[in-house]
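Tip: read the tokens left to right.
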């Protein structure tokens, strides 16, 4: 690839630019470091560049014209791929020559990009198409696979001005005959002014044969090092761009008033006074970004630890997010503007904050939450034996608070936040007791607990009846008095009173009789102070004999009531 071809790969890009000679956004020879965006498309339909040649050594008329066509595609926000193919034309006197030049391709990578500053690089290749020796005034190609690299730096001093600086090199003619003699150093500066439909641009470009700084070689071997000043106008008509530009050469190609001995790149050996270019291109820019992103971290104001499950909300937009294990959250697709953000978390004081969102940017924020100061309630009391009133050492399990052990005198105290609680009291040898209560802020609540001793394995006497009778005999009344005392001692015990009959009469009669016997016992116990809801009654008639109904003694045993513990 020739020097001129290399320099036309040095592009300008970004929002302040139009398609350049190789279809990427830019001026003629200098590239911007700003990213073009995913979906960018530039098509160079036609771009003609004509050189004005001058030589008082060889007065034969000469013409050199380049016509470019190419394509550029934005692969991502910071990577743009481009390729182009030139058509070259030479005229020397009455002779003409033309050919497709070397295929040129490269990709721009933006490494660092801020609102006003960007830095990146541009590696590129030149792939030979075999056109090396077809030119009359210059070489149409190198015949080898060549490569180069540019460092890119850009600055936006205002919304309408873009300044670009390029510096790099081009390793050309990869054969042992030419080797490093033809390698080039490249430098350039450009300024693009975005005024609307008509946009002026200005650029300075320079290339230098690197061998001049390394070896003492004959400069006439390859000619002088061009330095040019150029500029032009870009006419933006929607997606269609029309470009008119040119450059004036401040340097000469001749060395010591002699033409170069060999043609080492695509510029002719003769002096070049000027060049004029005209082009038509189509440019499709990515959709304009109107939203931004809010990313942040929520921490505890005292400990600095991240807070999970904190809720972030922009009320005006209805957008919400929840922080993760690291306290991080993200709100995406937020329209540009100033918003009020609400941050809440259970047990913490809510906060509000203002955040500015810019299109295409990420607003980094950090919020700290303070724990709520809760006025706790106080609970105190005493645990005693229900029967004796003596203190009992017990353990209280309070949901949401933990376990509390009473003192030796049975007293206890603890504090808790306002709310509803369930407290279970346990002590060795006693039935557990449960209390449920609701506390208010600053309240002092007294809750005494009377524990009932654990119920041992209780057995009750069997009550017998005369034939066809449900009257309780005096001797069995004394037994039931003892049952009353036992049930009074264990108030949590419930019993089932089962009535039975012998087979002295009809079956349905015996069923009714068994129920009456059970009801008679229940009535006696209730009269003795036992709550009715602790006593259940069931009659079995003659269905469950404990002895044979064929004998008097057996029938006597079957006329009975049994009392069994059910809880």
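Filled-in amino acids:
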């Amino acid at each position: 690839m020739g020097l001129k071809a290399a320099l036309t790969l040095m592009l300008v890009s970004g929002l302040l630019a139009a398609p350049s000679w190789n279809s990427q956004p830019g001026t003629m020879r200098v590239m911007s470091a700003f990213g073009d965006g995913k979906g960018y498309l530039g098509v160079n339909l036609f771009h003609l560049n004509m050189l004005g040649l001058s030589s008082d050594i060889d007065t034969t008329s000469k013409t050199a014209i380049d016509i470019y066509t190419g394509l550029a595609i934005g692969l991502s926000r910071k990577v743009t791929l481009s390729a182009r193919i030139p058509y070259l034309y030479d005229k020397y006197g009455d002779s003409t020559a033309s050919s497709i030049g070397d295929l040129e391709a490269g990709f721009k990578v933006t490494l660092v990009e801020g609102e006003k500053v960007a830095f990146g690089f541009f590696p590129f290749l030149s792939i030979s198409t075999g056109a090396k020796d077809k030119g009359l005034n210059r070489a149409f190609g190198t015949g080898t696979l060549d490569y180069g690299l540019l460092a890119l730096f850009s600055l936006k001093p205002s919304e309408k001005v873009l300044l670009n600086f390029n510096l790099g090199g081009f390793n050309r003619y990869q054969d042992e005959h030419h080797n490093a003699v033809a390698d080039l150093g490249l430098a350039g500066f450009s300024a693009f002014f975005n005024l609307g439909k008509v946009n002026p641009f200005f650029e300075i470009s320079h290339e230098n044969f690197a061998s001049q700084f390394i070896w003492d070689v004959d400069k006439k071997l390859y000619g002088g090092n061009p330095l040019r000043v150029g500029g032009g106008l870009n006419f933006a008509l929607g997606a269609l761009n029309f470009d008119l530009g040119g450059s004036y050469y401040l340097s000469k190609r001749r060395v010591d008033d002699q033409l170069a001995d060999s043609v080492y790149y695509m510029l002719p050996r003769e002096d070049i006074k000027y060049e004029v270019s005209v082009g038509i291109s189509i440019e499709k820019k990515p959709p304009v970004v109107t939203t931004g992103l809010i990313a942040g971290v929520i921490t505890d104001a005292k400990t600095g630890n991240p807070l999970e499950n904190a809720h972030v909300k922009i009320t005006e937009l209805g957008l919400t997010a929840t922080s993760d294990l690291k306290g991080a959250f993200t709100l995406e697709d937020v329209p540009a503007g100033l918003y009020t953000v609400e941050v809440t978390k259970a047990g913490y004081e809510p906060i509000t904050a203002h955040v500015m969102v810019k299109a295409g940017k990420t607003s980094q924020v950090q919020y700290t939450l303070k724990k709520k100061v809760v006025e706790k309630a106080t609970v105190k009391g005493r645990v005693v034996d229900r029967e004796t009133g003596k203190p009992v050492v017990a353990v209280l399990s309070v949901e949401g608070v933990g376990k509390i052990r009473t003192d030796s005198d049975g007293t206890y105290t603890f504090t808790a936040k306002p709310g509803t609680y369930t407290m279970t009291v346990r002590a060795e040898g006693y039935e557990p007791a449960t209390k449920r209560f609701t506390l208010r802020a600053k309240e002092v609540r007294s809750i005494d607990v009377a524990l009932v001793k654990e119920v041992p394995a209780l057995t009750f006497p069997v009550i017998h009846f005369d034939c066809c009778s449900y009257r309780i005999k005096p001797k069995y009344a004394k037994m039931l008095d003892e049952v009353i005392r036992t049930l009074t001692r264990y108030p949590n015990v419930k019993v089932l009173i089962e009535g039975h009959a012998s087979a002295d009469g009809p079956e349905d009669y015996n069923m009714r009789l068994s129920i009456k016997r059970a009801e008679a016992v229940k009535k006696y116990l209730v009269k003795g102070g036992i709550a009715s809801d602790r006593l259940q009654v069931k009659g079995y008639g003659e269905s469950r004999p404990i002895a044979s109904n064929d004998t008097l003694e057996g029938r006597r045993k079957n006329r009975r009531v049994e009392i069994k513990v059910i809880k």
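The chain has four domains: 3-284, 291-369, 377-451, 463-565. The helical segments are 3-7, 211-214, 474-489, 507-527, 552-558.
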